[in-house]
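re: ur question from yesterday

yeah so i grabbed the chain u mentioned. its 214 aa long if i counted rite. heres the sequnce exactly as i have it in my notes:
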Amino acid sequence: MTLLSRRRFALLLASLCLVLLPPVLAHADLMRAIQARSGLMDEILLQADQPRYSNEVWVLIDKQASSLSLYRGNTLLERFSPISLGRGGAETQRLRGGRVTPLGEFRVTRFNFDSKFHTFIGLDYPTPTHARMALQTGIYSQREYDDYFAYYRRHGRPPQDTVLGGYIGIHGVGVADADIHRRFDWTDGCVAVTDGQVDTLSSMIDIGTRVVIR
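ran it thru and got these C-alpha cells back, copy pasting raw so excuse formatting
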C-alpha cells in the first residue's frame, strides 16, 4: 500500500474530524466559535513573530514550513526541518484527546531529560489567552474559567487536566519510529524534532524562553 504524504495525511485527518463532529454543534455555532477564537489568536500571532528586544533568544515554529527556527533577535541561529506536529493538525484551540498542536505564544516551563521521547521541553499551555478563547466559545464555563486562573495564581503555571488538555512541549523522537517522524505528523499535540536537534535546542534555551507556534 502506498504511504500517504505528510500533507495528504493531515488533510485526511481533518476531513475525518469534520465528519465526526457531534451533531449537537450547529454549523452556525461552529462558525461563530471559530471566528471568535481565531480573531483573538490572530492578534497575538501578528505581534509574536518578532523579537521582543535585540538579543532575545526565541523560537519560531511554523506549521506551513514544517520548521523550527531558533533566533537571537533577528539572527537565525538554527533551523530544523521537517518537524512533526500533532496527528490532528495545528489549530488555535485544542481539546483534550484531540491530538492537535495549539497555536500561540508560549514560554518554556521545564526540561525533562529522562523523557521516553529523549528530552521534553515543556510549554505553558493552556495560556490565559487559550482560557479566554475557551470561555468565549463555550468550551469553558465561567466556573471552569475562574478555576483556571485560581490554579494559575496558586501554582504559577496553568492546570494540565482541564478540557483543554495539557502536557504540550517540544521533544525528540526517543522510543518512537524515526522513519515515521520523517514522513508524518505523529505526536499527540507536541512538536517533535530529532533527538540530536532537541539536544541542540535545549542547550541554547532556558526556562522562560519564548516559543511561538504559528
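noticed a couple things. DSSP finds six helices and ten strands in the chain. also The CA atoms of residues 42 and 95 lie 19 Å apart.
anyway ttyl
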